[in-house]
Every structure is written in C-alpha cells, then in structure tokens.
Amino acid sequence: MSGNLAASSERVIEATGLQRHFGDVVAVAGIDLAVARGEVFGFLGPNGAGKSTTVRMLTTLLRPTGGSARIDGHDVVGAAAAVRRIIGVALQDAAIDPLMTGNELLRLQAVLHGIPRAVARTRGPELLERVGLTAAADRRVGTYSGGMRRRLDLALSLVHEPRILFLDEPTTGLDPTSRLSLWEEVRRLNRESGTTVFLTTQYLEEADELAGRIAIIDDGRLVREGSPEALKSTVGSPTLRVDVDPADLDATSGVLAAFGPERPAREGRAAIGLEGGAARVAEVVRALDEAGVVVGHLELDAPSLDDVFADATGRRLEGAEE
C-alpha cells in the first residue's frame, strides 16, 4: 500500500507486514506504510480500527506481534532507545501530572532528555508561547481545560526538537477554536522546521486540511492510500442524499437506483452516486414526485474522504454526517 510514495523520497517511517494481536483479537493485520521526510501523513479511521495500536508500535511503546518497522533507519524493537531519542510523541491518553505547572513539566521533560539547564530555561518559555500557554505557565495543570492540556502535551513532545512527530488524535474532544489553533501549529512546525508529522485522526476534515497523503485503516487493514485529492477522485460521482419518511424509504431507493449506484447512508436516508452530477437533480426530483415520495431534505455533495471510506468499507465513518 506504500506504492504512492515516490521511490526517490527519503523514507523516515517504514512498516512492513506490521501486526499486533491481543490474544485472538487482531488489532493490526499486517500493514505496509512508508512516510517521507518532511511529509504530513494522515492515518484516518474510526475508533477501534487500529490507529493508536499502530502508533504505539511505531513509537516503541508496544512490541509488534509480526512484521517490522523502522524509524529513520532504526528498528523499533532492536534499536528502541535510538528511536525514542529522535521522535516526539503526543498520545491521545497521555498522563500529565495535574499537580505540576506547565513550566515544571517542561523543565522535567528537558531533564529526561538530557538538555542542559541553560538551554531548557529558554526553550520552555518559547514552547509555551508557541502553543499559547504563556499566561498559564505557572498554573497547575489540574486547572487547565482539555484544549490547554493537549497544547501542553504538544509542547512537551517538542522539547528535544524532534524531526519526526507522532500525534495520536491530537484534537479529540477539543472545541473548534482550540482545534484550529492546533492545526495551525502543526502546519507551522512542518513549514518552518521541516518536521515530519504522523497524524492519526478520526476527523475527515482534519485529515483533509493537514495531510499531503492519507492512509485509511479499517478493522486493522489498510483500505486506501494516496493524496486527499487522488482518493476523492476515485469515488467519481457526487453523492446525492435524500431524507424521506421511513415508510417511503423502499420506494425512494427504487427510484434512485435508476440514477446511480447505492451508497451507504444513515437510517432514514437514501444515498446514491449521482451519475451526471448536478445536471440530473431536477430529473431525480421529478421521478420521486411521480412515485408519490415526499422529500424532506435533499443534498448533493462533492466526493469527500467519507465517500472514499464508504466506498472502501461499505459504511460511513462515525459522526461523518453530523
């Protein structure tokens, strides 16, 4: 699945046949990945798909059951210590001591990485300013909001100036303003420092906004890979979604079948890939009217990453239509 990465690119994250089993449960089922230096790579999928398990293997926190992975040439099992020195990691469920202040945590992180005290004294405030936490630097982390904790976790992952950064669902639970702020910081890191970013997310918009290339994982297997634009182009026709009374759903599906292939939709809604696009919407409306179907709502959307996911798996990402 890594064939879309140019052969000439310098690969800094590589996985070959990577697997992880928990007893009889297969969390990751032999995936192949390759990420180029300086790339923002999106790893997209629903909860339980295997995203976080993959990140934990790539960051040496979880031993693979099978296959192999290398980070900038270092094997994640045989050279785990070397891998940890060159990566930054901000995990979704990172534990941060609520009794310490932001400043204290940054100083502690600097000590753990062997950074000289004089360097740490300037780097800590610089990182807090970068993530918008200067005013809260001497407050206990237990008083921070969820968004502030996520931004602090990002600052902590950058203390040793890693060239490779793993972000595991960094904006889950954040309000829209905090989410946009973190997106901008990721862009800035990549743009100004050339930081390679491996981003896991269940948010379609996040992957579309930040990643130059995306892999979609479902049930432990990669089902698509490529740039957002290339992936969306494979879907073809825009998606027509029609809301009707549940009693009319079968009749609606029958009418729509003449206009394009069925696509997954939530309960109480029918959806198709409308062949011919917007020019045929009026024709569809006439056909539904002739069939006696009362339409509550109708919308036509250009192909999205959710359509790509639906095309690959036969279902929608959770919350994608909300």
Task: Give a short synopsis of this structure.
With 322 residues, the protein is an alpha/beta fold. It is built from eleven helices and 13 strands. Helix 3 crosses helix 4 (117-130).
Explained architecture:
The protein is α/β, with parallel strands linked by helices. The radius of gyration is 23 Å and the shape is elongated. The model has no long low-confidence stretch (mean pLDDT 89). The strands form 3 sheets. The chain has a 6-stranded mixed β-sheet, with helices on both faces. A 4-stranded antiparallel β-sheet has the order 2-1-4-5, with helices on one face. It has a 3-stranded antiparallel β-sheet with strand order 12-11-13, covered by helices on one side. Helices cover 35% and strands 25% of the residues.
Give the spatial strand order of the biggest sheet.
6-7-8-3-9-10
Mean pLDDT: 89
What's the number of extended β-strand segments?
13
**Radius of gyration over C-alpha positions, nearest whole angstrom:** 23 Å
SSE ordering: EEEHEEHEHHHEHEHEEHEHEHEH
Helix content: 25-40%
- Percent in strands: 25-35%
Distance N terminus to C terminus?
30 Å
Oligomer: single chain
User: Could you describe the largest sheet, including whether it forms a barrel?
Assistant: 6 strands, mixed
Shape: elongated
Find the structural class using helix and strand composition: alpha/beta
Low-pLDDT segments: none
Total count of helical runs of at least 4 residues: 11
